[in-house]
Write a structure and sequence with these properties.
elongated, zinc, JAB_dom_prok, Cytidine Deaminase, domain 2, 2 domains, hydrolase, alpha/beta, Rossmann fold, 8-stranded mixed β-sheet, metal-binding, JAB domain-containing protein similar to deubiquitination enzymes
């Protein structure tokens, strides 16, 4: 079952909270999480800011109790009220109790009503144990509590703590990669695939057969005869009917998984409907051949705290005598964690390349003039490549997700923020997250604030 409520952290903010809550003195510590929300219907709460309660400010800090002053609540209310954010009070359990104690219940009865007196219709509390695991619950104004179904962290690894798998002694062990346990776990997650062509159809097929509970696929394009050599499950009849790629994909998945697993989104990812669909997922796979779509995927990952896996293939050519020759056959997989380096930080797209792509589309003559004048740095053409290259890259992309959600690598996943391979040179290179410069990201955990993603074109329609 797909969780109804989720509390989502970026890896950097989760690490920050953990460092503060466990200062290695064996005593409880506290912090306040300021959370935005994703657009509905699914309720995902995104940790945007953290207010750490100083240890010295606490009236009492013991192994199983803590008392801290209300001034930090006032500070949090000032931050949260203007954006109608949700406040979650979190504290540590150094003794290892993975649940709410009687003292925690009593504390909530005293403190949570004051939050509702200030503003809002939903606030909550949470606890963390020394391994970083979190359980959380939300209250409505009548003080009815409901456990948060899933807590996620998108960092170097992808962490999931489920309420229905938790006990007072801790959460269940994670399933082992490539087992039926992994399949069962994936059945409770949703994925969004941007692009349903060469690599996208292969990525989507793998996700569906691996067992994802829901796979949203966004693409506005229609099938043609020229697509049949590289889009999985495409048929001659589909090309004759000029059928939507996402509809053909959903029909194929329904044949072996049943209805309701593949959700077709027949729209460009640069539209509001497609962005809203992606916001309902737990992970995003970007399989497109335009820079604009990659930019939107970048923004979606940041705004909704979603892990992003971007795959691209290219076949550069060179002049050899009077003819063209293959210079290389390449693939690239980037894993972008919220709060880490973005695709833009890594040079996958730049303002210049986005402008060049735009001019190619709307004013090809002007684009050629600028290219000739040296104003643009030039674009690497994303090839519609043969199916073998697409499958090689798509498989590496999905395995990159598995390696982070169900870790199996011998080295830290942090060393694999980017993977590039060359079939011509028979080489594969890996790049650490730490080699990329990271610019401040104003969209991080922006949530459902209008306009979506900070783009005027995605604002809510007026009634």
């Amino acid at each position: 079952m797909i969780p109804e409520t989720t509390l989502a952290f970026s890896g950097t903010l989760h690490a920050q909270v953990k460092r503060h809550l466990f200062p290695r003195d064996g005593l409880e510590a506290a912090a306040i999480l300021i959370c935005t929300r994703t657009p509905g219907p699914r309720r995902r709460f995104l940790v945007r800011e953290i207010i750490c309660v100083p240890y010295a400010a606490c009236k009492r800090r013991e192994r199983d109790a803590i008392t801290w002053p209300g001034e930090y609540l006032e500070q949090a209310i000032d931050l949260a009220e203007s954006t109608a954010s949700v406040m979650i009070l979190i504290h540590s359990h150094p003794g290892g109790l993975f649940g709410f104690s009687d003292a925690d219940d009593e504390s909530d009865r005293k403190v949570i009503p004051s939050l509702f007196h200030a503003f809002g219709s939903l606030h909550g509390s949470a606890i963390m144990t020394a391994d970083g695991a979190i359980r959380a619950r939300l209250y409505d104004p009548s003080f009815q509590a409901r456990a948060v179904d899933l807590v996620t962290v998108a960092g170097d690894d992808l962490c999931y703590w489920r309420e229905d798998e938790a006990s007072f002694t801790g959460s269940e062990d994670r399933p082992v990669a490539f087992t039926s346990g992994m399949t069962a776990e994936l059945g409770r997650l949703s994925a969004a695939v941007i692009g349903a062509s060469g690599t996208g159809s292969v990525v989507g097929e793998q996700l569906a057969r691996l067992g994802f509970g829901r796979v949203f696929v966004a693409d506005f394009d229609r099938l043609e005869w020229k697509n049949l050599n590289r889009i999985l499950n495409s048929k001659r009849a589909d090309a004759d009917a000029n059928r939507l790629k996402v509809e053909a994909f959903a029909e194929a998945v329904a044949a072996y998984r049943g209805e309701g697993v593949a959700i077709p989104v027949p729209a460009s990812i640069a539209t509001r409907d497609a962005v809203l669909a992606a916001a309902q997922s737990d992970v995003v796979f970007c399989c497109v051949d335009t820079l604009e779509a990659r930019q939107i995927a970048d923004l979606i990952g940041a705004a909704f705290l979603l892990p992003l896996f971007d795959v691209g293939v290219v076949i550069p050519v060179r002049k050899k005598g009077g003819a063209f020759a293959i210079a290389d056959v390449c693939g690239r997989i980037d894993y972008v964690q919220p709060g880490g380096s973005t695709l833009q930080d890594r040079g996958v797209y730049t303002p210049e390349s986005l402008r060049g792509e735009y001019l190619r589309k709307v004013a090809p003559d002007a684009h050629q003039q600028e290219l000739d004048a040296g104003y643009l740095k030039g674009l690497v053409e994303e090839a519609p490549a043969v199916i073998t290259l697409n499958m090689r890259a798509a498989s590496a992309c999905v395995n990159e997700f598995i390696s982070r959600a169900f870790p199996f690598r011998l080295e830290s996943n942090r060393l694999y923020a980017r993977t590039q391979f060359s079939l011509a040179a028979c080489e594969e290179e890996h790049f650490s997250e730490d080699v990329f410069n990271r610019a401040p990201n104003r969209l991080l955990a922006r949530g459902d604030a209008e306009p979506l993603l900070g783009l005027p074109a995605l604002k809510a329609p007026t009634r």
